[in-house]
Design goal:
The complex is a heterodimer of chains A (about 280) and B (about 290). Chain A has 2 domains: about 1-35; about 65-230 and about 255-275, MetI-like (MetI-like fold, Orthogonal Bundle). With about 280 residues, chain A is an all-alpha fold. Helix content of chain A is about 80%, strand content about 0%. Chain B has a domain at about 60-255: MetI-like fold, CATH 1.10.3720. In chain B, helix 3 runs parallel beside helix 7 (about 155-180), helix 4 runs antiparallel to helix 7 (about 155-180) and helix 7 packs antiparallel against helix 10 (about 210-225).
């Protein structure tokens, strides 16, 4: 009796999850498939759930006739280069915070400092940056955008890496220092090799944050160096009739890397998104 | 006394200085500029010191109060629904062993994908003629709604999208918390014959309090800063129905190019975020 009841309960649970997932994934499905339809079909109220006549027309059109690929390249350049520079600065900073001797109070204050930078509203940063970049000739340049991405994302990367580095046992490092090993050697020979998954997950999160960023890019980029999200926003304003297939394709291209990472590295991403609070 | 080891500075300072340079520097600049009359679009208006006049104009502007009210409403409603939905999902999934990892990955997608992409999707699914939402409504015999084009429904549309995007954040945090509750906590309650609700309110939720504090704080801060989805869907319209704080501030600064007023509003924004941001940072650093 009890057995049968628990089986029914399990059945209901799966039913609930499946229904929730269908509701949750349906919008994504419709948006992706829109990229393979004709503009006419996406405006036809009788063809909302009728997908006959799927076509690659808009994809081919975008790749050949517009600068779509160059916007994709801009997005990649901005994200990859800022991610690399962020890691270059954050790894030593996080190592210092996690492993090196300093006053307790100093350590707490520094962590606080790094983390609170992450709470700044973007709009409060971008207004003065806009004026400053205009003066310095950095406005509408890729260097300017990367510089801002680097600075704005160092705090979270450092905070998360700090959490990963702390989990590496300090004993090996201390023992090696007695043998005349420097801090730098400890970082390179012990801490970095032992926190591989942590480094990978912070790298990927940083990539995603910069890849997804819109507000800064919308102010700091123009024509040739637009990133994908900025270009997508721009197209929706350029034409009186929006092309849903084009929006569908921009959607698909923007979410591909993110979906791949979500499916392969979920644990680490959850940790990163909760500011390191969820550890599994 | 032995000389203090200050080697850590070599490691920490490059990152710290960079962050302070572009973090604190601009804020000080904003603070100064917010007391100036400064418009980049109208160069005939001279750049001059006006004291607190920008702030006075801001606080007497109905548009400012409208955006503040809308933002508070948006934050309160979205975050509350997300907390409830996330909890329900987590309670159901905690009991499911097979496929849990896959479900978690799938629910991770909405919160990780580009917010602009979420906005693009919103434009299509909520489109009044050919959107899937209105198609469902027709199927159910409900009236056709002009979702984000009608001032009465625009904010609701944004809330629905935000709930779609972020409920799974609460879900993932609560699920992680649930996995961490030792089974012994429930055994005693089981012996006493406590029902589901009794267990939920006397054991589960109180034990998960820290998780909820964290989830709520992160969500409130991010919802308060909401910008991307609204920008791409309505730009604050129709008739200022979705004119949230960030959008209003952005329009002053980058549509009117009124840098003085824009800076003043961003300083007010910062002051409001400061309290709640500090609270979150406290919670996070205490655990570490």
């Amino acid at each position: 009796m009890a057995m049968r009841r628990s089986k029914t309960a399990a059945g209901f649970r799966y039913l609930f999850i499946v229904v929730a997932l269908v509701i949750y994934l349906t919008p994504i499905f419709f948006q992706v498939i829109a990229g393979f339809r004709t503009t006419g079909a996406t405006y036809d109220p009788d063809k909302i759930v009728n997908f006959r006549g799927l076509t690659l027309e808009t994809w081919i059109d975008l790749i050949h006739h517009q600068n779509f690929l160059s916007y994709l390249r801009n997005s990649l350049v901005a994200s990859v280069s800022s991610t690399l520079i962020i890691m270059l600065f954050s790894i030593p900073a996080a190592f210092g915070l996690a492993k090196m001797p300093m006053g307790r109070k100093t350590r707490a204050n520094l962590s606080f400092e790094f983390l609170s930078m992450r709470m700044l509203p973007g709009i409060a940063v971008i207004i003065p940056i806009f004026v400053a970049f205009k003066r310095l000739g950095l406005l509408y340049t890729m260097q300017g955008l990367v510089l801002l991405y680097v600075v704005f994302n160092i705090p979270l990367a450092t905070w998360l890496l700090n959490g990963f580095f702390k989990e590496v046992s300090s004993e090996i490092g201390e023992a090696s220092r007695i043998d005349g090993c420097s801090y730098f050697e400890e970082l390179v020979r012990i801490v970095i090799p032992l926190s591989g998954p942590g480094l990978l997950s912070v790298t990927i999160l940083t990539f995603i944050f910069t890849w997804n960023e819109f507000m800064f890019a919308s102010v700091l980029t123009m024509s040739a160096i637009r990133t994908l999200p900025v270009w997508a926003a721009y197209t929706t304003q350029q034409h009186y009739i929006i092309s849903y297939p084009v929006l569908g394709i921009s959607f698909t291209v923007m979410i591909v890397p993110v979906v791949v990472f979500a499916l392969t590295m979920q644990r680490y991403l959850i940790r990163g998104l909760s500011f390191g609070a969820v550890k599994e | 006394m032995a000389k203090k080891d200050r080697t850590w500075m070599i490691y920490v300072f490059p990152a710290l200085l960079l962050v302070l340079l572009v973090g604190i520097g601009p804020l000080l600049y904003s603070l100064v500029v917010s007391t100036f009359q400064f418009n980049l679009a109208k160069l005939q208006i001279p750049f001059r010191f006006v004291g607190l006049r920008n702030y006075a104009r801001l606080f007497t502007d109905p548009g400012f109060w409208n955006s503040l009210g809308l933002t508070l409403l948006f934050v309160a409603v979205s975050v509350s629904i997300e907390l409830v939905l996330g909890t329900i999902l987590a309670l159901v999934l905690a009991e499911v062993e097979r496929g849990r990892s896959l479900f978690r990955s799938l629910f991770l997608i909405s919160m990780m994908i580009t917010p602009i992409a979420v906005g693009l999707m919103g434009r299509f699914i909520f489109s009044d003629v050919s959107g899937i939402v209105n198609w469902m409504f027709r199927l159910l015999g409900l009236p056709r709604i002009i979702w984000y084009g009608d001032p009465r429904f625009a904010l609701t549309t944004m809330i629905i999208l935000d709930v779609w995007e972020w409920s799974s954040f609460v879900f993932l945090l609560v699920l992680a918390g649930l996995m961490g509750i030792p089974p012994e906590f429930y055994e005693a309650a089981h012996v006493e014959g406590a029902g589901f609700l009794a267990r939920l309110f006397s054991i589960t939720l109180p034990t998960l309090r820290p998780m909820y504090v964290l989830a709520a704080l992160i969500r409130v801060i991010d919802a308060f800063k909401e910008f991307d989805k609204i920008y791409i869907m309505t730009k604050g319209g129709p008739n200022f129905a979705t004119d949230l704080f960030s959008i209003h501030n952005y329009m002053i600064a980058f549509k009117e190019f009124n840098i003085g007023m824009g800076s003043a509003m961003s300083i007010v924004f910062l002051a409001m975020m400061f309290g709640i941001g500090t609270l979150l940072v406290r919670v996070l650093t205490r655990e570490a």
